[in-house]
Specification:
The chain is an all-alpha fold and 347 residues long. It has one domain. It has 13 helices and two strands, in the order H-H-H-H-H-E-E-H-H-H-H-H-H-H-H. The chain is globular.
């Protein structure tokens, strides 16, 4: 019975997100909430994308939240024991959903500052880190108070790594990395939406294997919302999700990984996100080292531009090609994550 609830919630999330585009995009244009493009990106971005409506992530945040809540209510009527044996899963899933919404609100604040000031700099990096650390700490605190705290990371082959108290700062840093990696992936039309859809499909399988009904519902809702948004965000995009949407999706990516005790699988299934941010780190490191070694004003660059999707864009790949190739990479590594999940949690 839950399968039909999941499918219904996914369809509902898709339809609500798609329908929202018909009124949200004109409203954003009316409010003049258009994207300001930095000069540091590909030059043609500023000419073709400047002024495109942003903060479109509002559409799927509302849709996912509504459908997730409705799905939980229906499962309650269908026999889920939220005060009994199903309580831990309920708390983890709801706490993860709330964490994602809080990340989305932070992204909304960042976007709002940008559109009001008419430039692409919103919150300072230190303000972002402070907000994100507070959200992560609140998530961990909820788990601890609910008696669901743990300090073990599981790997294939039955391996486990008990970090003790070091779990919280280390995994907290992992959340910071992953959330901001998803944000960096939102750099060209349709990329973040398509790659995140693949991730959610992968985790819908992993959560089914685990019997984690709350997180499975969340994965279905997020997948439906991303596909619904793609109808407006696919090249050429009519609206951008903004930090509002990408930070929310980053929160769900982490909620699924941590809530299912699957941090390792989160990294494997989210390999595109990981590589997007890693390319920035590698580029910056190589640039600084070579600049210092050669005593020049300019260091060497491994990539034409980072995040790495811009490297391929400047190598004459179309946005659609990048979307497809990156999604295929996500699907391949997602398949590996599913195989690893069977090894770790198979029954």
């Amino acid at each position: 019975m839950n399968t039909w609830i999941f499918v219904g919630a996914a369809l509902g999330s898709f339809v609500l997100t798609w329908l929202a585009g018909f009124w949200l995009i004109p409203l954003l244009h009316k409010l003049k909430y258009g994207q300001t493009i930095l000069d540091i990106g590909p030059k043609w971005h500023k000419a073709k994308k400047e002024g495109t409506a942003t903060m479109g992530g509002i559409s799927f945040i509302i849709a996912v939240t509504v459908c997730f809540t409705a799905g939980m209510v229906v499962m309650g009527y269908n026999g889920a024991s939220f005060t009994g044996s199903d309580k831990p899963e309920f708390i983890r899933a709801v706490s993860g959903m709330i964490m994602a919404v809080l990340f989305g609100l932070m992204g909304f604040l960042d976007d709002f500052i940008k559109v009001k000031k008419k430039h692409n700099e919103g919150l300072s990096w230190i303000q972002k880190v402070i907000f994100q650390v507070m959200i992560i700490a609140a998530y961990f605190a909820t788990m601890y108070v609910s008696g669901l705290s743990r300090t073990v990371i599981s790997f294939p082959g039955g391996l486990q790594w008990d970090l003790g108290l070091f779990y919280y700062p280390l995994v907290g840093l992992l959340i910071l990395y992953m959330v901001n990696s998803v944000n960096l992936t939102d750099g060209i039309d349709g990329l973040c939406s398509s790659v995140t859809t693949v991730y959610m499909i992968v985790f819908s399988v992993i959560t089914a294997l685990l019997g984690a009904f709350g997180h499975q519902l969340l994965a279905y809702c997020a997948a439906g919302g991303c596909i619904g948004f793609l109808t407006w965000n696919a090249p050429p995009a009519k609206v951008f999700m903004g930090d509002t949407g990408s930070m929310f999706l980053g929160g769900i990516v982490c909620a699924l990984g941590l809530g299912c005790n699957a941090e390792f699988l989160m990294v494997i299934a989210g390999i595109v996100f990981v590589l997007e941010a890693l390319s920035v780190v590698i580029q910056s490191t190589v640039f600084k080292i070579t600049k210092k070694i050669h005593h020049t004003k300019e260091g060497k660059r491994l990539f034409k531009m980072t995040p790495i999707h811009h490297h391929f864009e400047l190598s004459d790949w179309s946005e659609i090609k990048i979307d497809i190739v990156f999604s295929i990479i996500g699907l391949l590594f997602g398949g590996l994550a599913i195989l690893a999940a069977f090894n770790m949690f198979g029954r």
